[in-house]
Structures are given as structure tokens and as C-alpha cells.
Amino acid sequence: MRTLLLVGTFAMLIAAPAWACRGTAEYPQVIAQLQQSNLPSADKEALAKRLQEGEAIHRRGHDLNDQALRQESLKILDEIKVKIAQ
After folding, report:
1. Which residues of the chain have pLDDT under 70?
2. DSSP 39
């Protein structure tokens, strides 16, 4: 029993970093940054739409356990972060 508990705890510690997903954490943050930015409203609308698309791709990537979809969504996220920072 003790061994099983130790193995379970060890497995959770190893898997914990995988549970933390950059896209899941950053999409809401970038949406808030976009809303507070000084960009023209037309640019904000276009970027907000792109953010929604990227977040949907990200969720689909998690649902399908598809790393390529999650990577695609992170590229969208990074592009938008650059545009907000300019």
C-alpha cells in the first residue's frame, strides 16, 4: 500500500508540469491586454476575432490531444502579443 502511494505521488509530480498549459493561461491574459490597449477599435476587433479563433483551435487541440493544433494556436497567440506590444 505504501509503495502504491509513493508511486502515485511520484507520477503526479512528474505529470504536474504537463497540466500547466501556456495557452490556457495566456489567452485570457492577452484578451484583457487587448481590451486595455490603445489600438484603434477596428484593429482591436480584428485581433479579438483572431484571438477567439486561436482559443477555439487551442481547445480543439486539447479535446483531440493534438499537439500540432495547440502549437498552431500558440503561434496565433504570439503574433497577437507582438501586435499589442507595438
Report:
1. 1-20
2. S
